[in-house]
Structures are given as C-alpha cells and as structure tokens.
Amino acid sequence: MTEADRICVGAIGGAFGVTGEVRLKSFCAEPTAIADYGPLFTEDGSRSFKVTLTRPVSGGLGARLGGVRTKEEADALRGVNLYADRSRLPRLPDDEFYHADLIGLEVRDPGGAPIGTLRAIHNHGAGDILEVFAPGRKSALMIPFTRAAVPTVDLAARVIVADLPEGLD
C-alpha cells in the first residue's frame, strides 16, 4: 500500500484505565465511525488494530485495540496516528475533501500567481484554517477554508485558488 492509499482517521491519546483501554481521538466527521473503517494501521503499516469502542470519554472515545491488553502497552501507543484504507472510507461529495488530498497542493491567487504550498489544515472549533507556506515570508499564511476565501479546489490540477481576505496579503 502506498501512503495515498491510507487516510489518517484518528490518534491514540494514551491509556484509559488499567486494562489496556485507550483514549482515542477520532478525526472522522462522525467520531464513532472510526470503528467502522478497520482494521486501522500505524503510519508505517507495521501494526494494525481492530477497534472496539467502549464509551465516550473526556476528549475522545474509550476503545479497545486488538492485541493491547495492559496499561503499559496502551501508554506506549500514545500519540500514534491511526490510518484506514482509503477504499473503506465513504465517497465524499464534490465540495468536501480529505485533508490528506489537499496537503502539498499549490495555492494560487485568482489571477494564477503562486501564493505558496498548503502545509497543514487546522481546526480549533470555528472551522478549518489552511496553513500555507509561502517562500520569502517569515510566517505561514493562515487562510480560512471558506467558499469566499477559497473559491476553487482542483484536485486534478493539484491547485487551490485562494482569494486572500484583506490584510492577509
């Protein structure tokens, strides 16, 4: 499998309790759907886990991972991202995207001039923010991922068109 064949769907927050249960942070639109896409893999693909959700917990979901039986084993997985095979994920509508498909795309202004490269997508509760690395700038541009600021995403051309809000240019 190539990196493009898997999508990051969650991360392990560490042990929850003493019997190997973990705190799981889901990156899915419907958080509990993370258990439907299994098995889930580590980034390098060296380990896979069957996920069984146990209960909602503060900051995520309680879960049992196949093969993880002790608190120490669960704690050793803290911070590990979990990936699902792309083929197991739902097909998205035309105006929705998996973050993995956007990272690395060139960002241009409406006239076609290059702005930079999409480095990351953040969401702190008020909507997605695109972090764009622009050569020659001291800091990254942070662009709201709204239709007004980002009118076009062309995956085939690997280009995002951003109409920078006043004060961002």
Tell me the radius of gyration: 18 Å
What characterizes the major β-sheet?
6 strands, mixed
Task: Return the string of H and E elements.
Answer: EEEEEEHEHEEEEEE
Computed structural class:
mainly beta
Would you mind describing this structure in some detail?
The protein has helices at residues 71-76, 99-102; strands at residues 6-15, 22-26, 40-41, 48-49, 51-57, 60-65, 81-85, 106-108, 114-123, 128-133, 141-144, 152-154, 159-161. The chain is mostly beta strands. The mean pLDDT is 91. It has two domains: 3-87, Beta Barrel (Elongation Factor Tu (Ef-tu), domain 3), CATH 2.40.30; 99-161, PRC-barrel domain (SH3 type barrels). 6% of the residues lie in helices and 39% in strands. The strands form three sheets. It has a six-stranded mixed β-sheet, with no helix packed on it. Strands 5-6-2-1-7 form a five-stranded antiparallel β-sheet. A two-stranded antiparallel ribbon has the order 3-4. It starts with 5 loop residues before the first strand and ends in an 8-residue tail after the last strand. The chain contains two helices and 13 strands; from the N terminus they run ββββββαβαββββββ.
Structure summarized in a few sentences:
The chain is mainly β and about 170 residues long. The protein has helices spanning about 70-75, 100; strands at about 5-15, 20-25, 40, 50, 50-55, 60-65, 80-85, 105-110, 115-125, 130-135, 140-145, 150-155, 160.
Task: Reconstruct the topology from this structure.
Blueprint: E1 6-15, E2 22-26, E3 40-41, E4 48-49, E5 51-57, E6 60-65, H1 71-76, E7 81-85, H2 99-102, E8 106-108, E9 114-123, E10 128-133, E11 141-144, E12 152-154, E13 159-161
Parallel strand pairs: 8-13
Antiparallel strand pairs: 1-2, 1-7, 2-6, 3-4, 5-6, 8-9, 9-10, 10-11, 12-13
